[in-house]
Automatic annotation (TrEMBL):
It is found in: Membrane. GO terms for biological process: defense response to other organism. It comes from Capsicum baccatum. Its main location: membrane. One of its GO terms (cellular component) is membrane. GO terms for molecular function: ADP binding; ATP binding. This is Uncharacterized protein.
Amino acid sequence: MEYVERIPSSAEPPIEVSYPSVDEELVGFDDHARNIIKKLRGRGSDLDVISIVGMAGIGKTALARKIDSDVSIIGHFDVRAWCSVGQTYNVRKLFLEILKQITGDRFVNVDDPDDMVRKNLFGKRYLIVLDDICERESWDVLTRCFPSVETGSRIMVTTRNVELTRYMKKRSEPYILPCLRDEESWELLQQKVFQGESCPLELRSVGPLVAKKCNGLPFLIIIIAGILSRKKREASLWLEVAYDIGSYTLEEGSMKMIQSSYDLLPDYLKPYLLYMGLFPKGYEIPVSDLLKWWIAEEFVPYNFYKRYDLEERSESHLNDLVSRNLVVFSKTRGNGEMKCCVVPDQVREFCLTKTKEEKFMQHVGKRLCMYIADTMTSDFKERKSFGISQASLEFIAHPKFSISKKKNLFPLLNNFRLIRVLHLLDFYLDDSWAAAFQSLTHLRYLAIFVKAFHFKWVSHLVHLQTLGVRSSYIMMSPAIWKLEKLRHVDINEFPIRWADGERVKFEEPTDVVLHNMKTLGTCSMSVADMTPKFWNKFPNLEQLRLHIDELGDVPYYSDSRLMTLEMFPSRLRNLSLSETFLTDEIVSSIAKLQQLETLKLSEIYFTGKKDWDLSDKTFERLKFLKLHRVFMTHWYCSDESFPELEYLVIKSCSKLEEIPLSFADVPTLRLIKVTDCSKSVCDSALSIKQYMEDLCNELFQVHILKSD
């Protein structure tokens, strides 16, 4: 019998899910950001390099992220890409990452990514951010594919190496980032500790002393803020922290404070942080995937009566780590939710050391969490020296393991039959993958990029919780009912029909219901297939991506047939519809979903008309609405149609004439984002903004962008 040693978990606190903002003001950075943005948007048409140089922990990366996400930068450049380089890097991986960002294709995998990058950038005004460049060689190799044509393109670099900036320089002088002044350090410390509250009188003398001891380094300040925010607000305790900082060199002080912050973590939270330290330096970790990996690794205690709350609990723990400033959110989704997070370099180094000390990666029964991506083999060697993971080793495979080298991979999988997480979306597999995976019966998470996929090939994975597939040929099978622990199915598109082409017979087996299923997509089905017997198989479904096919038949279905759409699970919170006709009955059914918060419509037509009239409909809890290529001319809404809407995103709706002015009466609205629409649509968005400003709503924003 396998024995897997685990770090014990203490009782966990109640769930309190909140999103720390990635838009928080960086104290003392506003002037720096304005100066660099001016350089980036300068009139010169030649390719220019803007270098941000400074010591570790001074905030180079944070400043670069602030600049890269600025609305004026987003609107100025045709394409943008960000990649973290560091001392150990994989050129192919970096080029692939850039290619994914400039093409929008998450799963691009080509033989010559550098050449593809060059071709996709040629003739465009681009901004490439190279974070943490350390040496000339990496600069020379990476910049060989960046065209120098006169389009006003820019490369923004962060580095500690002053000499290197002179080598990279074209026209602009390096931007030397100074340390924060004492008063700025104290302002940042107060901001992080008191979260908008005023500083207590008894701390107003000792507080500036603590801030001064940080020597103007933002990273050290926010780590100490995470410690102080969990201590009693007593001057003596703050003085102890100030003394600890002053007893070490800057580098030693940073590690000492990270250790103190780690010691303050509850026991149950420590594995979460150590797990995140195993990712490559600067790697943007997808939040939605991270939560699923934690659940698969059983960091989140399983409670039968609260089994539907696993994602919420994981999210709460991630937010806890962020609030302690040990993890940083780096990207948000269109609806304001967090998309990616990053472990600061110093925290990552601490985690790697602590991982070895606490034997977090101890080899027990050859259990391994595998996340295979295009990263240097040396990263794996670095981790392997600690021993194979008992809990969560991130295995990094060099891209030489391509189709021609798959023989190197499959025997390796055979040696680790106890793995629970296997992520291979950047790694194309041919049909032999199914046989190679037969022994991996402990898998909880599987994400693969394959030529063909049949549900029966994974029917033996009875513990599977998450299934992600990218494939051009997908076949359904009754075997899906064997996977009763499935929580998330994310497939590019699959038909709700068996392999023989017949409709799915949900009457058999009648006793099987996938109670745990929360995410399902993308289903391709006709209205005729959308019956109560189908939806009742997934009573707890919260997210659904749906493509209603047989579009030409939809207008001819009777109202009674269309009303079966009301059988969407009542818990549905997120719905995406694509490539279909919408009837008034379908829209009414969607509006009746009382818990729906996110609605995304793409490639949508309307039956018999070019107008979308929602005047008599109310989407009570909808917070995010995205319209992409929705073919309507006029759009009518009342001020009660979207009473709680926060984000409205409109992209490539070429026929739309204007956004209804009634959105100006939605008090919760925070953002309207318009991309590639007519001037009249942009003008209507600006009119809504003016109306909001007249009502003193200063938080409301309008973003008008070029086509991606």
